[in-house]
Specification:
Elements lengths: L1 H35 L28 H30 L1 H24 L6
Helix pairs in contact: 1-2, 2-3
Length: about 120
């Protein structure tokens, strides 16, 4: 039980360090932008769009569904990779049964992506 606690302790330390460093850098960037750009007038202050850009195409333009599909696949793939980190730690402790399960799940993911590739879902046209 001590090995599991030891492994997750380092993961917790890494996560908290990354979180605190990110929060500190965001606060520093906000402070710096307030100090540097406090007296500067905005050129688009009286513009009708708050985003600062003009519409280049009509609102009725179609959004490509393939872009949304590939973005969704990217998010799913990223989530799968994030799930593998704690699982890899537990596989080290569970020995042979865990490795067989990991190979089975990895094979199923591979079959799913191969199916998507063969159907042409990953091609950008």
């Amino acid at each position: 039980m001590e090995n599991v606690t030891h492994s997750y302790f380092y993961f917790l330390v890494f996560f908290l360090t990354a979180l605190l460093l990110t929060a500190g850098l965001v606060c520093f960037a906000a402070f710096l932008s307030r100090k540097l750009f406090a007296n500067r007038k905005q050129a688009d202050e009286n513009d009708s769009y708050a985003g600062g850009f003009h519409i280049l195409s009509p609102v009725t333009a179609h959004f490509p569904v393939r872009f949304a599909f590939i973005a969704l696949l990217f998010v799913l793939f990223s989530a799968e990779l994030l799930l593998l980190l704690p699982w890899a730690i537990s596989l080290h402790l569970s020995q042979n049964d865990g490795i067989v399960t990991a190979l089975l799940v990895g094979g199923l993911w591979g079959v799913g992506y191969f199916y998507e590739y063969k159907k042409g879902a990953l091609e950008w046209k």
